[in-house]
Amino acid sequence: MTEATEAAVREALATVRDPESGRDIVSLGMVQGLKVRDGLVAFALEVPRERAERMEPIRRAAEKAAAGVPGVLNATAVLTAHRPAAQPARP
Questions:
Q1: C-alpha–C-alpha distance, residues 74 and 64, integer Å
Q2: How many independent structural domains does the chain possess?
Q3: Are the CB atoms for 46 and 82 separated by under 8 Å?
Q4: Which one of 14, 35, 50, 57 is separated from 67 by 20 to 30 angstroms, measured CA to CA?
């Protein structure tokens, strides 16, 4: 069986486009924490908080793209949206 590599998975993920910018999710820096081990792929898609709900189709497309890489048995992606930093309380 072919062993999946991080480079091959990143290449597959680069085929997934953000509909708002038209750029791929890898070049946009959305793909974070990519792990490839024993045919299992896991990663997070970091998205702006205000777009999180609209990004679910992109998450599914990214999982499908990663799962299509030879040697991948399962791919899991999660969406993560960081909150803006809290402003310090003023005395």
A1: 9
A2: 1
A3: yes
A4: 50
The DSSP line for 30-89 is -EEEEEEETTEEEEEEE--GGGTGGGHHHHHHHHHHHHTSTT-SEEEEEEE-PPPPPPPP
Query: Can you give the pLDDT of all 91 residues of the chain as single tens digits?
Result: 578 899 999 999 999 999 999 999 999 999 999 999 999 999 999 998 888 889 999 999 999 999 999 999 999 999 998 755 445 555 5
Q: What is the span of the domain harbouring residue 41?
A: 6-80
CATH of the domain at 17: 3.30.300.130
**Which pTM does this prediction carry?**
0.85
Looking at the chain, how many residues does it have?
91
